[in-house]
Amino acid sequence: MDALSRPLTDRTLFALAEGYAWLPNRMRESGGRVVRTRLMGRPTVALRGPDAVRFFYDERHVRRTGALPEPVVGTLFGHGAVHTLDGEAHRARKELFLPLLHGDRVAGLAEEVARAWDEAVPEWGGRPEVVLFDEVSVVLTRGVCRWAGVPLGEGDGDGAEALARDLVAMIDGFATLGPRHWRARRARGRQEDRLARLVEDVRSGGVAAPEDSVLGRVCRHRDASGEPLDARTAAVELLNVIRPTVAVSWFLSFTAHALHRWPEIRERLRTGDAAYATAFTHEVRRFYPFAPFLGGHAVTDLTWEGERIPAGALVLLDVYGQNHDEKLWGDPYAFRPQRFLERPAESDELIPQGGGDPRAGHRCPGENLTIGLLETLAVRLARLTYAVPEQDLSIPLGRIPTRPRSGFVVTDIADVT
Ligand code: HEM
């Protein structure tokens, strides 16, 4: 009997409990780059390494439709989202995102976010303490909504805080079935309702959306069928631009953690050395945990490095494990931005936002945007002076998604630029 057909005990609960360490631990035990297990009742094979990335992103091997668990779709991505499509339907939908997230657009968003940051910092200076994660999520929400042409909505002040809370909740609750999960579902329901009404208002002419804005483009986009997106799906995809932009808050809290632990890096970032800032953002995205792994279904019976993968098995790409693979990085647990100046990463080695070609496959179309935003904000953070009071800065690997437990509290903020 094939190892995959044997009734292996389901490991879903172990995976949830061990979090980021689950697959890397199993890989270490197996002594290779393949793990066989069972998740959500299915035989499962996990892979890692640049060749595995190419294998995983080949649509003849692995497809996504129906592979993502409902609790993830119902919180993080939204039903009908681009993440859940394959083939022609996926390519047509991806066409919506790619032109919105490249070149001048990246600079435009970085400018809006920098403006929101510069407006917020003087106000932080007047407070006894600031939780950086929370404040940065509000800055990113303001910046991305101005850039995308999306109103902030109801709530205290300009509505940015309430919207930021909802966007953070959608990300925070996808990998648990506890209270964080139900908060995420409520947040998504609220924002999908609001944005679906906005899409209808734009289409009926009641609300103006600049032709070239993200809002305007989403309202006009036509799918592979030639039909416009229904209002709910349009709302889902609007959220798929705004929500992951606000996810950069996680990377900024990791940036603050890195600057605190390795103060010499702060000095170098502060100079505004552009190549170093890029290397630093790569190292933050490699070193700190965000996406644990990606998954899809085997389209047909497959063989990977001599191992049989039956049709329908769950295939996982070990993202966190690959970003910490000694064979690729030498000293994976050292935080060393310099490594990217010494040797630029080869294609499909660094995969915090997926691998392969973003135009052809599911790789994150917002990677350049993430890098641009993180460079802008990391240099600004390095140029602030602040004190870091006693707090819990541990980053629990059993929690997905994780971050410094305290959210990174700072006091006595002043801008020294
Ligand atoms: C897909 C990570 C920022 C839009 C993905 C994927 C990952 C990821 C791991 C899945 C790749 C796959 O399934 O193969 C991240 C991280 C971010 C980030 C860690 C920063 C914190 C962004 C931004 C945007 C964005 C800023 C847009 C403004 C998307 C979209 C997809 C995606 C639309 C779906 C692509 C597809 O299925 O074809 N991202 N992302 N992401 N990301 Fe990002």
What does the secondary structure layout of this molecule look like, with pairings?
Elements: H1 12-18, H2 22-30, E1 34-39, E2 42-47, H3 50-56, E3 62-63, H4 70-77, H5 87-97, H6 104-125, E4 130-131, H7 132-148, H8 160-172, H9 179-203, H10 214-220, H11 231-246, H12 248-261, H13 263-270, H14 274-287, E5 294-298, E6 302-304, E7 307-309, E8 314-317, H15 319-322, H16 326-329, H17 338-342, H18 367-382, E9 384-387, E10 409-415
Parallel strand pairs: 2-8
Antiparallel strand pairs: 1-2, 3-5, 4-10, 5-8, 6-7, 9-10
Helix pairs in contact: 4-9, 6-7, 6-18, 7-8, 7-11, 7-12, 8-9, 8-11, 9-10, 9-11, 10-11, 12-13, 12-18, 13-18, 14-18
The chain binds protoporphyrin IX containing FE (HEM).
Explain what the structure shows.
With 417 residues, the protein is α+β, with helices and mostly antiparallel strands. The chain has a single domain, classed as Cytochrome p450 (Orthogonal Bundle), CATH 1.10.630.10. Helix content is 50%, strand content 10%. It is built from 18 helices and 10 strands. The strands form 3 sheets. It has a 5-stranded mixed sheet with strand order 1-2-8-5-3. A 3-stranded antiparallel sheet has the order 4-10-9. β6 (302-304) and β7 form a beta hairpin. The protein is globular and about 60 Å long. The model is unreliable at 1-7 (pLDDT under 50). Protoporphyrin IX containing FE (HEM) binds next to α5, α11, α12 and α18. This is Cytochrome P450. InterPro entries: Cyt_P450 (IPR001128), Cyt_P450_E_grp-I (IPR002401), Cyt_P450_sf (IPR036396). Keywords: Heme, Iron, Metal-binding, Monooxygenase, Oxidoreductase. Pfam families: p450. Belongs to the cytochrome P450 family.
